[in-house]
Amino acid sequence: MTAQPFLPFALPDLGDDEIAEVVDTLKSGWITTGPKAKRFEQAFAEFLGDPQIECIAVNSATAGLHLALEAIGLGPGDEVITTTHTFTATAEVVRYLGADVKLVDIDPATMNIDIAAIEAAITPATRAILPVHYAGLAVDMLAVLDIARRHGLRVVEDAAHALPTTLEKELIGTLGSDATVFSFYANKTMTTGEGGMLVTRNPELAKRARVMRLHGMSRDAFDRFTAKVPSWYYEIVAPGFKYNLTDIAAALGLHQLKRLPAFQQRREQIAERFNDAFADLPLILPPCAPEGDTHAWHLYVVRLADDAAITRDAFIEGMFAAGIGCSVHYVPLHLHPYWRDRYGLTPEQFPQSQKAFERTVSLPLYTAMSDADVERVVQAVRGLLA
Ligand SMILES: *Cc1c(COP(=O)(O)O)cnc(C)c1O
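A: This is the predicted complex of the input protein with pyridoxal-5'-phosphate.
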């Protein structure tokens, strides 16, 4: 019997159209931010279905979150409330600006930020709420926006997992927050290798983010060198950043975005197969979106039930022995030395996140998986738990 090849935890799904578009870009003479980045922004706005929304392509979601918080004027002395159960990028951008992070616990049913804990964490220094749509399931944004309205707070959504996710049939990115940021990192629901999109309906915020995206320059290079009257002249209005998305990356994004509906169908299909196949096991399965809404299924996270006769680590080792990569999302921020030590955090302050961390595993779920790959995961999980 020959061993099957290792099934990685995640793989991108790039086709001939993406490859041809990148080659076209390389041959075009314009490889950095230019016509394709602009087209990608327009296509993304069309996807969101709202002409009032401005889309600003950036070279990562981290960059987009940084730009959004900079544009709302966040600075030293300010606090931003977010979940401990996230990737460090969500919180590190707050520190870039000299502001502080107030981490709160999660709702164990959804693993999204605990709405009541947000309200309890508000102080006179609180400026903004930064919810994360964990795994691709929408946060109760109506509740978050209501808290923000009542307390005069800004809202920036970390939607790195949430493309396409809906809440009451509205796409994340089109709700009433100040800005929403998507990620096109290699393992996200669509990818440009590295990349992100900052979307906002606030024209002032968009203007500031566009300027800060490229060195604080009043005109970007593509405008300067391709205008009817080419101009060498520009003005620096702020010490900006280098966060622009290249046309090479945007070339990938144009085709990945077209394929997103098909990607979504495939993700749903795999999630449904897992839900059926694991229903009788000592596992708590991930929550589905409410009827009529979309879960992006960026992650498929199972929780070992209290009566499962295996530890989280042994489960992951067993899957690895079966040739299958798994992961844990996340080592919560309160356990990382930087966050723990800066704010004097202990696991007891985040009982739900801590318990989730100790008992959850993310299984492979991506569009490049074949049906046989999906069945391999099913059989391996059943082999360990049934
Ligand atoms: C991937 C991710 C990010 C960062 O995205 P990049 O595009 O890699 O900067 C931020 N937040 C969460 C929750 C993520 O999963």
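Residues 6 and 323 are 5 Å apart (CA to CA). Residues 60-62, 86-87, 89-90, 132, 158, 160-161, 183, 185, 196 surround pyridoxal-5'-phosphate (CB under 6 Å).
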